[in-house]
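Are you able to produce any protein sequence you like plus the matching backbone structure tokens because I've never seen that pairing?
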Amino acid sequence: MSDESPAEITPADYKLLVQSVVDYAIFMLDPQGHIASWNAGAERIKGYRAEEIIGRHFSVFYSPEDVAAGKPARELEVAAAEGRLEDEGWRVRADGTRFWANVIITALRDETGRLRGFGKVTRDMTERRTAERALKESEERFRLIVQNVVDYAIFMLDPQGHIASWNAGAERIKGYRAEEIIGRHFSVFYSPEDVAAGKPARELEVAAAEGRLEDEGWRVRADGTRFWANVIITALRDETGRLRGFGKVTRDMTERRTAERALDERSRLLTHLVHAQEMERRRIAWDVHDDTIQSMVAVGMRLQLLADRLEGQDATAARHLNETVSAAIRRLRDLTFRLRPPGLDRGGLVEGLTSYLDQVVTGAGLTYELWHELDREPPSETAITIFRICQEALTNVRKHAQAKAVRVSLSSSGHGVLVRVADDGVGVGDPVDILAMSDHFGLIEMRERAEMAGGWWSIRGRPAEGTTVEFWVPALASGGEGDRG
């Protein structure tokens, strides 16, 4: 560490300091406002060299309108009277361009108090002003957006939960005007039972601790009516982390909730309807199998015994009658299979379709391919709906398509099952014309089944190019009987 004393700062050093500064224009004026000195910053900011500007009046830096209004002289008067003046405004460079300047004029007096002139420090603030104006415009645009949004209630709370701002959406949804609600506690929007349970305070605590909170539930309007709300509360903190309040966004979800509940109710009704239909089909199948078919089998056995005992034309007639009974039994067995294929109960949708394809499609001389990519087995009523539509589509292929092969594909899609039944047969004409014909009950039934389940159905194809039936049904469990997980 040196024992030498620091060098004494001389007036020449101060002059060197001022002359070398480039970020500020620092110069002196005489008492009348003529420029008496000039530094590097003045040259950079204002565009004049020292030899061009020294001796000229400082009003050259002001706009013509400011000069006409007497602003330069007035600023010197104020600085002389009050010791200093600070101003921001437009100033003019040597090339005529303007810049936004922060200006400080300081009166310079000697030890006797005599005015020796003025010190003038100018800084170019154009970039800062541009940024501030851009920020202000952005904030104003954001404020206008927030204020004018009508589908969302967007407002601020102070840290204790008192309402500090209010937008048009808040007025529309909650029913309060700004002057009626600002300053009141936001718990006014909660039901008496929620307030008694401490829900408003608890939500602010969670939002403050975790940064945000989202909730759905009943809220109360100004007129006392309730609405189902989706609410997001966000903690607002400054750069130091101090909690400044909360932002609260509320949306009225009453219509959506009503629609969802109606859809749930429709789904429950559909579940009960499908279940009732299938139970009735199963009962009929059991009755036919256990009663009618067994009785006809007994009749057939007796006819066979009778034919063996008779001779001639009587024996022939008995055998023909037995063949008729046997054919009727086969048709009834086919009916019971179509009413309730056993695979659907044992192994689910894929096994039920496989069983049906093996017996009905292969039996009709067609080849088939069954492809599936299901995330899981759909609920019982969904599986039954899919099976019945496929069953009708395959019946049409067997009866009308003159096809050699059929392909059935199933895949999970959008919380549901997408199904295609495609054949290589004679094809179809315009699907719109086909559906408009009153005798195409099977096509209409397929479409109605899919739409009743909340899905869609379509048919497409061209003559000699085959036909594709495509449909989608939702596979959301609705709590009905027979749901599979």
About this structure: The domain at 11-126 is CATH 3.30.450.20 (Beta-Lactamase). Confidence is low (pLDDT under 50) at residues 478-485.
